[in-house]
Amino acid sequence: MDHSPIPRRTLIGLLVAATLVTGLTSLAVSAQEAPVAQEKGPAPADAMLHALDVKYPTQYRPMEAAQTKAVLDRVLVYLERTTPAELVDKTTGAAITDISRANPQAVLKPGDFRLTSYEWGVTYLGMLAAGAATGDKRYTDYVTKRHQLLADLTKAYYPVVKADTANSAAPIKSFLNPHALDDAGALCHSFMKAKLSASPVDYGQMIGICGDFVTKKEYRLKDGTLARGGPDGNGGRKMRPLPDTLWLDDMFMGVPTMAYLGKTTGKREHYDDAVRQVLQFSKRMFNPQLGIYMHGYVEGMRDHPEFHWARANGWAVMAMVEVLEVLPKDHKGYNQVLAQLRAHIKGLASYQTKDGFWHQLIDRNDTYQETSATAIYAYAIARAVNRGYVEPQMYGPMANFAWNAVASKVLANGQIEGICVGTGMAFDPAFYAYRPTSVKAAHGYGPALLAGAEVIEMNKKYKFGLNDSGLMFQGAR
């Protein structure tokens, strides 16, 4: 046996090899085992800062149905008290109880608002919606009482007005002898909606008067689009403010009436007319890059006064949800109207302010936040969510936040702040930016009722709440 000593260089090599094998084995074992847990220390001081309570100026959570109804009730009580459904002698102020015959001295008892204005057509719609959403009969009774009075007055005074439109007197003459869509369209819409909800009032004569005006007598452009600035009857043209002018407001003042005439009469040509109006107004006045409408358009002009007034955009979006409510889904224009509604709602979404409102000129942050337009958007967007036109995940939180903004403007006595007064059309931003606001501006009361009612319905159908501090959709109920 050879017992020669191992050479020094060989011995060093063997030792290095053994060390490498041992190390690799150790690494292989440790790679399969979890490392020792790090000892837990105190949480960093800023670990929960993302969950700190935020002081939002506008309530940042869905409003409970009872809370919403309390807001609507304040509005109802105020309007019930300040819009009497009575006749008085215009000279003595004495009550007139016999309304079965025409009395040239009779006028509606003065209140804060007129019972036959287009704004009150919207208010009747809001009362009907609030009654349906809350189950409180006081809202529908408000409508029935005043609609019945208007029906009785129509029966008594229409023959007199028709016989002498120039010299006759009647408490509701602007309705019995309309001169503009404002006199007839929104009221007609409210009559038909009440009729479809089984109101006991006989609406036949009134719908005949206002429906005939909207569909046959209002001025139109050559392609049939509703317009202002037609012949003045004396060989000239009306300046409203220029001949052949489109006001975006008229999408609501006339178009839902056409659609509801289709529903109540079964005549498909009324549906066709409503769709044509939506598409022809939109072709001229919708800015697809901004996703919103201009307020006014003058046929024949190369350039137009493109001011994006908030309430006019409200009338447009409201018109589309109302048309879709009754337009048959198999109508050839249904998908076009739906696509236009979606484009408009998507456009409006990008302009909601941090307090839940929209500005008086939608894309001008230097104009004030306006209540009536915000209410109309809250209603129309919530209705679109409820009908499946748009996604609740995207638009439900927005509608809730908009309603909270509107509710913050309802005073304890039921009056509503921040409503822009009646507004014509202009060619400069100052006109819109400096329009006054008033609690006596009738334009905001119907939209507020509609918004609260529709948000109640939306929150019955879907759940919304805070997720990681953000107001989010949380599924169907």
From TrEMBL:
<keyword id="KW-0378">Hydrolase</keyword>
<dbReference type="InterPro" id="IPR012341">
    <property type="entry name" value="6hp_glycosidase-like_sf"/>
</dbReference>
<dbReference type="InterPro" id="IPR010905">
    <property type="entry name" value="Glyco_hydro_88"/>
</dbReference>
<dbReference type="Pfam" id="PF07470">
    <property type="entry name" value="Glyco_hydro_88"/>
</dbReference>
<dbReference type="InterPro" id="IPR006311">
    <property type="entry name" value="TAT_signal"/>
</dbReference>
<dbReference type="InterPro" id="IPR052043">
    <property type="entry name" value="PolySaccharide_Degr_Enz"/>
</dbReference>
<dbReference type="InterPro" id="IPR008928">
    <property type="entry name" value="6-hairpin_glycosidase_sf"/>
</dbReference>
<protein>
    <submittedName>
        <fullName>Glycoside hydrolase family 105 protein</fullName>
    </submittedName>
</protein>
<dbReference type="GO" id="GO:0016787">
    <property type="term" value="F:hydrolase activity"/>
</dbReference>
